[in-house]
Amino acid sequence: MTGKVIEIFDSIQGEGLYVGTYQTFLRLEGCNLRCRYCDTAASYSGGREMTPEQAAEKCLGLPPKIVSVTGGEPLCQPEFLREVCKLLKDGGKDIHLETNGTLPKELERVIDLVDVVAADFKLPSASGCGELWDVHEKFLEIASRKEVFVKVVCGENTPPEELLRCKEIAGSVPLVIQPVFGEKPDFSRIAAILRDNFRVIPQCHKILEVP
């Protein structure tokens, strides 16, 4: 078995609840969506063929305890992902899965090997991908077996009803509002809409200028 890997490197996590932590990043090729604001479009193609053993060996050779599996969308390669995660867990690593939250069947195949799920809900107004509420809800049901948080990219013109729908689906799951880089949403308005159980966390890796 082989999979397609874009890159493997260690850096500082720039998004979500684990922002600022030292992690290894395993970026896999491919994505099932084409979001307007995507900043990793280079991962759509051009990956290097690797066996699970090769990918895991490189990750295990880097110092961080946490391996963040990202993309693109890593669940586009579920069998390869599962085999890599097995090897990483055997090597004592924790698995942080960065996902767009739209592939519940594929998540079901790897959830037992994942420690943290960062589910990036796609707002119709910001992503241009249409309404994905039902599939996000199904995905979150599975992800909730482990530690999970929901991340939402929010722009200056994000409709309030979309933020409220996200909060409704997330329920007690922590919600992270991530401003589109370079835009300044009305945070007072967001706070008045959501009230509690959310945080505003920008893309800190772009501010710090790290990979």
Provide the fold topology.
Layout: E1 3-12, E2 22-28, E3 48-50, H1 52-60, E4 66-70, H2 78-90, E5 94-99, H3 104-108, E6 116-121, H4 124-127, H5 133-143, E7 147-154, H6 160-170, E8 175-179, H7 187-194, E9 198-200, H8 204-208
Parallel strand pairs: 2-4, 4-5, 5-6, 6-7, 7-8, 8-9
Antiparallel strand pairs: 1-2, 1-3
Helix pairs in contact: 1-2, 5-6
Annotation keywords:
25% strand; 9-stranded mixed sheet; 211 residues; 8 helices; alpha/beta
Largest sheet: 9 strands, mixed
What is Rg?
16 Å
Oligomeric state of the chains in view: single chain
Helix- and strand-based class? alpha/beta
Any overview of this molecule?
It is built from eight helices and nine strands. It has 211 residues and is of the alpha/beta class. The protein has a nine-stranded mixed beta sheet with strand order 3-1-2-4-5-6-7-8-9. Helix 1 crosses helix 2 (78-90). The longest helix is centred in the middle third of the chain and has 13 residues, at 78-90. The model has no long low-confidence stretch (mean pLDDT 93).
Summarize the structure.
This protein has 211 residues and is of the alpha/beta class.
